[in-house]
Write a structure and sequence with these properties.
The complex is a heterodimer of chains A (643) and B (86). By secondary structure, chain A is α/β, with parallel strands linked by helices. In chain A, 43% of the residues lie in helices and 17% in strands. In chain A, helix 10 links the parallel strand 4 and strand 5. The radius of gyration of chain B is 12 Å and the shape is globular. Classes of the chains: A alpha/beta (643), B mainly alpha (86).
Amino acid sequence: MLRDLFWLPAKSDWSDAFSAARKLPAPGAAAKLRELANFNIDFLQTVQIDRALTKIADAARAEANASKPIRLAMLGSSTLGHLAPAIRVAAYRRGLWVEIFEGDYGLYRMELGEAANPESSLKKFAPDVLLLALDAQQATRGAADDAIREMEACWDAAKRNLNCVVIQQTVLQTLPPLLGNNEHQLADSPFTIVARINELLRPAADRAGVLLLALDVFAQQEGVRTWHDTALWHRSKQEVHPRVSHLYGEHVARLLAAIRGRSAKALVLDLDNTLWGGVIGDDGLEGIVLGQGNAVGESFVAFQKYAKALTTRGIVLAVCSKNDEVNALSPFAEHPEMVLRRPDIAAFVANWQDKATNIRAIADQLNLGLDALVFVDDNPFERALVRQELPMVAVPELPEDPADYVATLAAAGYFEATGVTEDDRKRSEQYQANAAREAAKTTATDLPAYLRSLEMKLIWRNFDRVGLTRIVQLINKTNQFNLTTRRYTDADVLAKMEQEANSRALTLQLRLTDRFGDNGIISLLIGELDAEATLWMDTWLMSCRVLGRQVEEATLNLLAAEARAIGAKAIGGIYLPTKKNGMVREHYDRLGFEKTEESADGSSRWRLALAGFAPHPVLMETIEGEQANDGATRPGADLLATH
Amino acid sequence: MAQPDQAQIYSQLTSIFHDLFDDDSIVLTPETTAQDVEDWDSFNHINLIVAVEAKFDIKFKTAELEELHNVGHLVQMIERKLAAKG
């Protein structure tokens, strides 16, 4: 039976716990239901949780209040209603609350067209995300090109009328082949057309900035016959079988989490029996099982390779092991079969403290929230402890056979992303450079001397299309140093750039380089000019990696100059509190703004008159970038070459 | 495993009804029909059949579902299919 969420732990007394949860007052029930959603539940249990949540919707929304609700519209050519509960529950598993609009089945084109009318129900719903699902029967009424054109027309209508993120479901291969193994010889067979559509869909979606829900790929894991039942199709026009609706929901929720920047960012690894077989402290370098010539040893190599491959797309690795540090480090330095080496590990913690405490320390060291961590440990005791102490950390249920580690971690989909930026690819290097900076800091006698020794350059540009992916990614994932935590889509950001072109707004993207390397884009600002010539800071966010390096002061100096250039007389600061951004409550105070307003909810407004503003002294150069190209020829790279 | 008797099938079916319709007061009799259970609409009917198929590891034919008219009939069909499985 692979129809389940096997990376989540099983719970034998789930039904009793569910009944007990139902009897709690709403807020307690909401928290408990989230916990119960994080077990290996089937479709019926998923429906049960959804019904329970619907009855305490206000409390459930509050439980998921780390981010604002996601408004999802589902439009398709077949029945989709049975998938909505699964999407809600899978999102809730991650602490996201989803409001769903279900289109009338088969009327999706009409509804998209009508969304031009402000009175249409879809337009009024104002979706953040639109999910388009085309079934195989519908998709193969014409040639593959026709289907692609139709989808493109839908995407256009969605962007024009709804201005929302679009997710297009790929086509499930439910149709029978006519020829067999060499079906492709028959270009107009429905089977070949589905294959061709899915092939064409990839580049078409990329061109249009549309995300895919790759149903064709992930249904293969359990097989199309598990996902689709012809009898059910004839009976109820459900293309996706209800028995796998919870898997479908999981995949949609992963995409929604990725859109909101809520996917995991770091993988925290145990060592003994997780990265190698045996116990390094007992068995020694020669005794641990790792490497070729032994099936178990090869399994561990394969797992290390997978972890290493994840770093190339931006996932940060950490080690959390109960070991003497010397023992824990020795395989990384000396074992010839190790794939992972010490520089691959951004945070290395090996001691005898409990793992929950150590994982907290790792999160601090990496400047990441606990909900950005995935913890992998072969020991059920450690997993249970971390789940209990740190419920926000994702802890997959690791199978007993190390041969299955990779498949489990991959199936869990914790690291879902909507794209990969150049910064993602370089993240490991950046963390290594950070470690080098820390080392330099401990040898420097005073802070100014240290900062000077870094030879920092702050390179700025207005927002541009080249940097758009990274800009949207930062806007959606930065939680801590984020004054307003306003989340924007590509379209929103383009609208701000449009405003800027009319001198009604100012956008800045900042890159920081130093002698240890390029930190990438580390800060974004969006200001909007009002009629009184105050530039209100709609967005000011910064990566925590560069805290304590006077970047805030240097940024303000730049902001003041640029604000004057577009005719601003003052800068207006806005602070909107969230669970995570307490660190910037006094940000504007520290920069010399005056508080003009404070509300009961903790939000505040600030003002800095530009007439009397004198730039803060800072120990870095501020330079306008030639081009904010995320590719190889970056201004940062050029500047570094001169040192 | 011994073949479950009618009483056991009723008991397992009742627990599916309780979970699916979120109502522990539902009591099933052979005469129970969709009219008697709140929320037993065509949408939940599909879920019910899928849940029954999963629970008993059986599969109904399209034609069988077309003629299904009450709980007693459903239990008979389950019984027959379990017997056929051996």
